[in-house]
Amino acid sequence: MKKYFRKVLGIFLIIVGTIALLTPLSPGAWLIPIGLGLLGVKLAFWEKIKLWWSKRKSKSDDVT
């Protein structure tokens, strides 16, 4: 049951995110990656984003 709920929620978030991307009514396009994450789809560039974020964070720690 839990797998089914995650799948339905993931698909729902992808659909709502796509609608939000196409309409100026809400800035909800961020729902697409969340929906993909719930479905278990890893983004191809996720590792690069994490590496960039950790480098950025370590630079900000060095400045202070």
Number of DSSP strands?
A: 0
Which term fits the overall shape?
flat
Sheet bearing the most strands, described? none
Radius of gyration: 16 Å
Cα distance spanning the termini: 48 Å
Residue windows where pLDDT falls under 50 for at least 5 positions: none
The number of distinct helices, counting runs of at least 4 residues, comes to 3
What is the domain tally? 1
- Structural class based on helices, strands and sheet pairing: mainly alpha
Mean pLDDT: 76
Strand content: under 5%
Describe the overall structure.
The protein has three helices and no strands. The termini are far apart. By secondary structure, the protein is mainly alpha-helical. It has one domain (2-63).
List the helices and strands and how they pair.
Layout: H1 2-22, H2 31-39, H3 46-63
Helix pairs in contact: 1-2
Structure in a nutshell:
The chain has 64 residues and is mainly α. It has three helices and no strands. The chain has one domain.
Main attributes of the structure:
single chain, 64 residues, mainly alpha, 75% helix
